[in-house]
Amino acid sequence: MFMVSAAIVLVMFLLNHLPSTFVRADDKLIRQVCHNSEAPTTCNQCVKADKRSDNANTVGIAKIVVDCIKFQANNLQTNISALASIYKDDVAANRTITQCQKLFSHAKSDLNTATQDLKNGNYDASDKSVFNALLYQNSCKTQFENNPKIKITPHIYYGFNIFEKLSQIALRIIDRL
Fold it and tell me: Lower Cβ count inside 10 Å, N or C end of the chain?
């Protein structure tokens, strides 16, 4: 009976320590993939915040980064929508805000396509979709910059910056697949 108990304790001890070994291997892959990006800290934060990162391969890491971009797109669209009430009496500002909301809808659609293309192994199409989403975001940002009446909040500027960084990270990862 003692031998069986000792064996069970030994097996439990070994099994308890195996996941940390696997996590270290995943952390190594995450560090390697993110190190090759232009913003490794942003990449690491995005990937490690997702529970799927524990078992992710390089394609999985790319999918996680695309999901981080989608999250940023949603945040930007929400923050931009909040500007509509501030500028409800300004036709030109409202036009810009409405156009940006549409651009982010297109960007999110392209990001959904990018995720699907990654799942299907169509990396060139995924790369193109992420690039198109970045173009939509840049178009919105340019429209705001060209309309000095609209005061952009720091949250929106920060969101644009993170969206761009994450897009560059995703493009770099996908290019290497």
Answer: N
Mean per-residue pLDDT of the chain: 88
* pTM attached to this predicted model: 0.85
- What pLDDT shows up at residue 10? 38
Cα dihedral 137, 143, 145, 146, rounded to 10, equals 160
Work out how many domains the chain is built from and give that number: 1
CA 48 remoteness from chain centre: 11
- Checking if the pLDDT of 3 tops 70, the result is no
Domain that residue 97 falls in? 2-175
Give CA 54 to chain center in angstroms: 17
> Minimal CA–CA distance to 167: which of 122, 124, 121, 136?
136
Residue 47 three-state SS: helix
